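Reply to dn_fold:

You asked what the input looked like. This is it:
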Amino acid sequence: MEKRKNRRTNEIPRTAGKIVEYLLIRGVLFLLMVLLAVQTGMFIEPSLRTQMNTALGMEGKPLQEEHLLAQAGGVETAPWAVISLRLLNFASLPEVTVLLNGEEIAGFVHNEVTLNVRHGSVIAVRNTNVRMPVTVILSKKTSNISQPADGASVSGSGTLFFEPVVIE
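and this is what came back:
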């Protein structure tokens, strides 16, 4: 009987360090079990996820479907198209620049320039060299562009304008 009593008393931690270690291990295991339970609840019930996520609360409320449809409609009503302009009789002429709606977009470093355009965009070519007139043609365009016509060209010096872009 005394052996049994000694065995029990030997298993009980006697020093303060062992008691603290014992309590820390138990506390960590308890916290891991609580964390596992919370994560399981978040995966099972989606409403818990949004309530516990502080970032979602700071960002604002999600858009409703009608707002998303309105945004999608706005993007759809403003289509983009692509036009390529080619410089004739020159391989490169960087001083000749292409203007899109009054803003300088590119120069003819190579003999072809590609632009992203929208309905109503105005394309112009600026040639400041009066002694050397240039000819620029519309070499390629996407199929949704009705004006300017494929193969349209401008030639001369100064600022030369193509027809405004019309997208079908």
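The longest helix spans residues 16-44.
Hope that clears it up.
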